[in-house]
Amino acid sequence: MARILAVDFGERRIGLATSDAEETLATPRRTLRRTSDEAAIAEIARFAREEEVRLLVVGIPRSPEGVESPIAGRIRSFASKLAGGTGLEVRFHEETLTSDEARRRLPPGAGFDKERLDREAAAVLLEDFIASAAAASAERRTKAP
Q: What local confidence, expressed as pLDDT, does residue 32 receive?
């Protein structure tokens, strides 16, 4: 089985997290410093090959009312380039409050480490994606004739 790679996009840093081969667990992996889309995509593509990734999940932030945030268009543009640069399917998943949850997970007194926070936020995103996919699969099975 291949893995899923979650991408928490930011203009300065990009957090990455991968699933295990069974696609049940998410692990924070890396934080990239983004100097350009091209450099970031090349680095993500290399990482995806090394990790045998089959699917990319990119977070899209929304307001509490469900409206995409102003940066969503920029994220969608990056994701389109990422799909082209990796040859992998990209799925979007709502990521509102992933950074808040990631911050709660960091050990008390560890200090504020933005790079660690970004990769932890990617793991939160991936955990939610995996849980949503499992719930949708279970629902389809129960509705099958």
A: 97
Distance CA 59, CA 56 (A): 10
Task: Give the Cα separation of 39 and 1 in Å (integer).
Answer: 28
Distance CA 83, CA 96 (A): 22
Going 99 to 47 to 1 to 58, the CA torsion angle's sign is positive
Neighbours of 45 (CB within 10 A): 16
C-alpha–C-alpha distance, residues 5 and 32, integer Å: 14
Measured distance between the N- and C-terminal CA atoms of the chain, rounded to whole angstroms: 28
Give dist(CA 44, CA 82) in Å, integer. Answer: 8
- E-only strand ranges, the chain: 3-8, 13-19, 26-33, 53-60, 89-94
Q: What is the pTM of this model?
A: 0.88
Report pLDDT digits (tens) over 44-72. 999 999 999 999 999 999 887 888 888 99
Residue 140 pLDDT grade (very low, low, confident, very high; cuts 50, 70, 90): low
**Integer Cα distance of 63 and 94 in angstroms:** 10
| Rounded Cα distance, 136 and 95, in Å | 18
Asked if residues 17 and 34 have their Cβ atoms less than 8 Å apart, the reply is no
